[in-house]
Amino acid sequence: MALVGIIGAALGLALLPIASAVAAQFVVIDSTSPDLPAGAIVEGTRLVSIAEGERVTLVPEDGNTRTIRGPFNGALEDKQEARAKNSGMIQTLAKFIGSDHVRSKPAVVRGGTTAALDEPFLLPIDVGGRFCVRHGSVTLWRPDASEAQTLIVKEFGGQADVMRIPWPAGDDQIAWPARLPPQDGKTYVLGLRGGARARQIHVVLLNGGAPTTAHEIARLADHECFRQARSLLQTLLPGD
């Protein structure tokens, strides 16, 4: 039995370097190359070919975006290094990039045009749905700041009174009322008195920050805050 144990331990030690040598992974977030479609996960040691005139934007495990413009032939990483397994950001991002949530278009109106939010954590009162907010910092936004209005905020189904907050003319942003702090998993009704119908916002409260924009996108997607994740993704894509 002792000999078997010694042999088993030796085999285990022999396998350690193999187990820890994990090739870096990249997720394609934007591509004009048919061989490397958006959402694909690419091993760093894999030989890839990008033709002249094509470009591929990738995110590695550290979250720092990289765009390669063709012609390019070779590996994304020149050697396989021993590294810890990634936190799952690559897989989460790949799943999101390849989903219908990215292919659909955001419906947020600013200045009379439909566009993605410039600031994903700025909460628009005219768009309902699921929304991720950062703890201790929630700012509301309205598309038309030409007139003074009254903001109405109430917890959906809650017993707290309706909050009415003056919103001065010329200000398109206002802080969420401190007397009714947003709570994780709660739904709130927001609107302007005398304005269009109020919207329901389901709040997902995030604690702390993400190390990179790519990690933040993955976190938002993981919490099903797809509109915000899609908006933030636009900031990583290269201009034509």
Please give a structural write-up.
The chain is built from five helices and 16 strands. By secondary structure, the chain is α+β, with helices and mostly antiparallel strands. It has two domains: 2-98, no CATH class; 106-236, Immunoglobulin-like (Sandwich), CATH 2.60.40. A five-stranded mixed sheet has the order 10-16-15-12-13. A four-stranded antiparallel sheet has the order 2-1-4-5, with helices on one face. Helix 2 (89-97) packs across helix 4 (213-222) and helix 4 (213-222) runs antiparallel to helix 5 (226-233). The chain is elongated. It starts with a helix and ends in a 7-residue tail after the last helix.
Give a nutshell description of this structure.
The chain has helices at about 1-20, 90-95, 100-105, 215-220, 225-235; strands at about 25-30, 40-45, 45-50, 55-60, 65-70, 70-75, 110, 115, 120-125, 130-135, 140, 150-155, 165, 175, 185-190, 200-205.
Kindly list the characteristics that best describe this protein:
single chain, 240 residues, alpha+beta, Immunoglobulin-like, 2 domains, five-stranded mixed β-sheet, four-stranded antiparallel β-sheet, 5 helices
Show the helix and strand layout.
Elements: H1 2-20, E1 25-31, E2 41-43, E3 47-50, E4 55-60, E5 66-69, E6 72-75, H2 89-97, H3 100-103, E7 109-110, E8 113-114, E9 122-124, E10 129-134, E11 139-141, E12 149-155, E13 163-167, E14 173-175, E15 187-192, E16 199-206, H4 213-222, H5 226-233
Parallel strand pairs: 9-11, 10-16
Antiparallel strand pairs: 1-2, 1-4, 3-6, 4-5, 7-8, 11-14, 12-13, 12-15, 15-16
Helix pairs in contact: 2-4, 4-5
